[in-house]
Known about the structure:
This protein has 404 residues and is mainly beta. Helix content is 4%, strand content 44%. It has helices at 93-98, 139-144, 390-394; strands at 2-5, 8-10, 23-27, 31-37, 47-49, 72-78, 83-88, 103-108, 116-125, 150-153, 160-163, 168-175, 182-186, 191-196, 199-207, 210-212, 217-223, 231-236, 251-258, 284-294, 297-302, 313-315, 320-327, 333-337, 343-347, 350-351, 362-365, 369-376, 381-387, 398-403. Strands 10-9-12-17-14-15 form a 6-stranded mixed sheet, with no helix packed on it. A 6-stranded mixed sheet has the order 21-20-23-28-25-26. A hairpin with a 2-residue loop joins strand 25 (343-347) and strand 26 (350-351). The longest helix has 6 residues, at 93-98. The termini are far apart. 43% of the residues are buried.
Amino acid sequence: QASFIGGVSTEVWGYNGTVPGPLIEAKVGDRLKVHFKNALPEGTTIHWHGLRLPAEMDGTLAMQNPVPPGGTFEYEFELRDAGYFWFHPHVMGDLQVQRGLYGTIVVRGEEPGFDRELAVVLDDIRLLPSGAIDEYPDDEGLAIGREGKTLLFNGHVLPTVYAQPGETLRLRLVNTANGRFFNFRIAGHTLRVIGSDGGLVEQPFDTETLLLSPGERYDVLVSLRGDVGDRFAITNEPYERGHDTGLGPALPLATLELAGDPVSAGALPDGGPPQPLFSEMAPIESIVLDEGTVDGMLAFTINGAQHPDVTPITVPLGELRIFEVRNDSEMDHPFHVHGTFFQVIARDGVPTSVAERFLKDTVIVQQKSSLTLSMPFEEVGRWMFHCHILEHAELGMMGEIVVV
């Protein structure tokens, strides 16, 4: 049970009984072993979003049968990359994630300087007046992905975050929502982005707002300006992702309040660890994302087909592929690939700068646009790629890469 609105009780599903689930903290090179027991009334798995690991540990139906009610499974793998990752089911993901099944992982490696750190989980939830989860939206809700009116910041509605004036605050941000994009902003402050899905970036950059689609992560530093008692709104700013979804006002997420003795502000890093540049010369795979109807039913497609009828892509182990991903639909789609990182090497055919080629596993392909991605494949197995608006994946926008 959880309480999100006015003390009304909501029945949820959770890892270890909490929403969000536990934050797992470890170091690069550690071996993680998870003793998983399914106490739910239906089968489920755990997908380790963003982690490079053996395919049989990836938690998808391509490689693992659902763990049945009362069943157990041992997930075990080495943590190869530093960064901020998360985990969630890959069985009826739209329903099971909406019910509360998600948690996060911080893997530490080379660390920047900061005074205070906060791992942030951004989500929303659709609630009925009774407090129960509204699990079955109308066709419009399925078309754009579930968007609940109740916004959650680490599982709470409009919490207050406390920090000292002058501190360097490190925020690790992840969007675990089914369909909502979060355009993150802290009033009166600039966000220095120092990391993304694949860990720290080589060239940090500043922004006033930071857009996260479902599945994306960013690592930011904020120099806190102001005096004791000052309060700053943390908001989700409007963003039009298609079908008039971004026409409303900014929505409050939390409040940042300065408290305690002021401290001397430190300098923010302007550089990070070097990262490799993936080749731009490799065989090309063409991916077309679209929406429409199949047999009179709402459908989302890849290359004109719905999962499981999307033709698999076969790649020899150790090879690299260029994915040309074109979005022909009227809305943005967050494109996610399992088991590897990629770099965006072109947008609408225009090459990106070296500074933009940081490691990603989820990226927004905007409506009526295209991205060119370069990605290596270093583990044998069957790997999924899909839109991370969970309703879109369940309605067909999902395919498979077979590494042999």
